[in-house]
Structure formats: C-alpha cells, structure tokens
Design a protein that fits this description.
15 helices; 404 residues; 19% strand; alpha/beta; 14 strands; 8-stranded mixed β-sheet
C-alpha cells in the first residue's frame, strides 16, 4: 500500500486545527478543530469527509482537554474511529505550520532534534505563535516517532525578497545582532494563490506577475514575479503593512516613543495597543468587516472612517507593488474578507483604471467558492478572486519533500 496521506496540523496557543488529505488525488479525508485547550469547556469538532462516518456529518465533544498532548490524542481517536488513525500505513507524513523560520528555514524541512531546537530559538521573533507550533511538533513526534514530521514555514515564500528589500535602513550591526529584517507572513497562502492565479489565466507561473491581497483578520499583500516573491507588506512581525482587524499596520515608529514619553505607556502596553486594540477595532470598535460594512451602510461615521482607511491602505500597496513589478498581470483577492466582501474589492479597485484595473460589477457581486475573474472585458490587468488553501499547500510541500 502506497503511503499518500498527510495530516496537516496548525497548533495555536489554545487550539489545534487539522486536516487529513490524500495526495494521490489531493482530496480531503477529514478536518477538525480543538479549541479552548486547557479549559473546562474545551471543544473538539471533527468532520469525516469520506467513508461511513461522513454520512453522520460533524461530531462534537465538549469537556476538559488539559493540554496539546491530550488534544492530539483526542484527534487521533476521532481519526481512528473513521479508520484513518495515526497508525495507518497510508500516512506518509505530518505537516506542521510554523509561523517563523527566520533566515535559516527557507523551504519545507524534515524535523529532527536540531531543527526543533532551531525553531525554539526563533521564539523571540514570534512569541505568540512559535511556542504553540513547537508544542504541536513535540506531541506529534511522541505519538508517531517513526513518521516524517515536516515544518512548513509562513516566512519561507518571502525569503526570495532581494536583500535591499528585506533590510530595514537601520544600523547594520544592530540589525544583524538581533535578526532585524523583513520576513513576511502568510507565505503558504501567497504561494498557493499566486500559482492558482496563473492557472486561472491559463499561463505558466513563470510568465505571470501578480499582486496577492490576503485579507482576513490579519492581512498582507505580496508582489510575486514569475512565481517568486519580491516584496511583501508584513515585516519583522505581522504588525507591519495593511490595516487589519486589530493591528494598526504601518505607523510612524515615533508613535512608540511618543506614547512612552508623553502618555507613560509601557512597552507591553504599546505592543498590546498596536496588535490587539488597533486596526478596524481601534478605529470603530468592530474588527469584523461584515459588521463594519453594515454600520457604514447605515451612516455610522466611525465605521465609514475605518473602512476608508482600510481601503486607502490597500490602494497604496496596489500602486506601490505595480511600481515594484513594472508589469502586473493580475491583482488577486483571497482569505475571508478578500473572498467574501465584494464591497472591499470594489472600493479597492475603484479609480485604478489608469493602472489597467476595471471591475465587472456583476461578476464581482457573485458569491462562489471557485477561483474566478471579476475584471471587466476592457481591463488590461485581470482582477481575480482565488480562495486560499493553506492546508493543501502545506500538505503538498510536505508530501513532495518526503517522497523525493
């Protein structure tokens, strides 16, 4: 029996998302989520997508799940109940999403003790994410020590940025000593979507220049030339760039000094302000774009201002990345907001006809789970909506690595 299945794990601080995929036909076999780990009200939702279990739909259990070890054991039990347990000979690898790979990890990597130690050493660069990623890896290795565990890094796709793009214009010795540079995030999404856009256009990836707009609660833009990232909006951390649900995106660095000196804010308070209390939430009290749009439609001034700021930042990055690429073949929207909020797409593209960008209003208004073009016939540059699939991208990279 050929091992062709990959279990994809995305371990958060109090959650584990997972999908089991069969790379023989790129199909999904099961998916699920464990949330509120460590609480009395922990919740596991498991959905078998094939086999007898699929007829019953989602299964849910609520009750204390003490830690990530217990969570993954519960996931393994659910998969086993569907005949797809971790002991299956069909399982080829476990693919782990790891947020930060620093400068060392620029491609998917089979995890051994040395690699795991390196990932731990990167925790200061991603203190909210890498610790949970490490925990997921440790538990999965303990459950199946014989199985290849592959780390797929959010930062890897952006490691192709030229050095003059990745560098901040600060003292070089200080930057080198503390690994201060632009890394970028959402890399698996940008990689998947940029290639999917080329397929949608019916052209080789190497011939297509695309601006990808990954718009979720976290949001980032990338400029991709011939399948290679040459610029992205997030930087040392996911704070830089676009206006997001709770993050400010670009601000004058002196805002930090001003808040410390004049308002007496501590470093931790400023960190919390910019990461958790800014963006749409900070400007109008809601970080859900659906609610922002509803309120703006009813004439709410704060929501209208937040939406205008969000869209203005998008336009700035589209224009900047058009200049970086020189020739743009497509602008592609993806992730929760990008895929579903037609008002955001319309507002972001409005007024950019000089750049060759014109929407077809009817095509833009259509809701669909399929990749599609929403640009007008006369547009010189395609505008697309491509649903992202980070789990499939992680599974693909992991499977290709272990079968090479």
């Amino acid at each position: 029996m050929t091992a062709s299945r990959v279990l994809v794990l995305n371990s958060g601080s109090s959650s584990v998302k997972y999908q089991l995929l069969d790379m023989a036909d790129r199909s999904r076999l099961a998916s699920g989520l464990v949330e509120r780990i460590g609480e009395e009200t922990s919740r596991l939702v498991h959905e078998p997508l094939v086999g007898p279990g699929a007829a019953g739909g989602k299964r849910e259990q609520v009750g204390p799940i003490a830690d990530h070890g217990a969570a993954l054991k519960a996931v393994a039990a659910e998969l086993a109940a569907d005949g797809m347990g971790l002991d299956s000979p069909e399982l080829a690898a476990v693919g782990h999403r790891v947020v930060h790979g620093g400068t060392r990890f620029t491609r998917p990597t089979v995890i051994d003790d040395e690699v795991l130690a390196e990932i731990r050493s990167l925790i200061p660069l991603a203190p909210l994410h890498n610790p949970a990623n490490v925990t997921g890896i440790e538990v999965a290795r303990a459950l199946r020590a014989d199985l290849p565990q592959v780390a797929v890094f959010d930062t890897a796709f952006h490691s192709t940025m030229p050095e003059h793009v990745a560098r901040y214009a600060i003292d070089a010795a200080t930057a080198d000593a503390y690994s201060i540079r632009r890394y970028g995030f959402h890399g698996t999404s940008h990689a998947y979507v940029s290639r999917a856009t080329a397929r949608l256009l019916g052209r080789p990836v190497e011939d297509v220049n695309v601006i990808v707009l990954h718009l979720g609660n976290g949001a980032s833009a990338s400029a991709v030339r011939g399948g290679v990232c040459v610029e992205t909006s997030m930087g040392l951390t996911p704070l830089e760039g676009l206006v997001m649900g709770t993050r400010s995106g670009d601000v004058d660095p002196a805002v930090v000094f001003h808040l410390a000196r004049v308002a007496g804010f501590s470093v931790d308070e400023i960190d919390s302000l910019l990461n958790k209390k800014s963006g749409l939430l900070g400007m109008c009290g809601d970080n859900d774009m659906r609610e922002v749009l509803r309120r703006a439609g009813e004439g709410d001034e704060a929501a209208s201002l937040a939406f205008a700021a969000y869209v203005h930042r998008l336009k700035k990055y589209i224009g900047a990345y058009a200049a970086v690429l020189g020739r743009v073949d497509a602008v592609t929207f993806t992730a929760g907001v990008g895929e579903n909020a037609h008002q955001v797409r319309e507002a972001a593209i409005d007024g950019l006809a000089a750049l060759g960008l014109v929407l077809d209003p009817q095509a833009n208004a259509v809701r669909s789970a399929e990749p599609r073009l929403i640009s007008a016939e006369e547009a010189r540059v395609a505008v697309a909506v491509v649903p992202t699939d980070e789990e499939l991208e992680i599974a693909t990279q992991a499977y290709e690595l272990v079968t090479r």
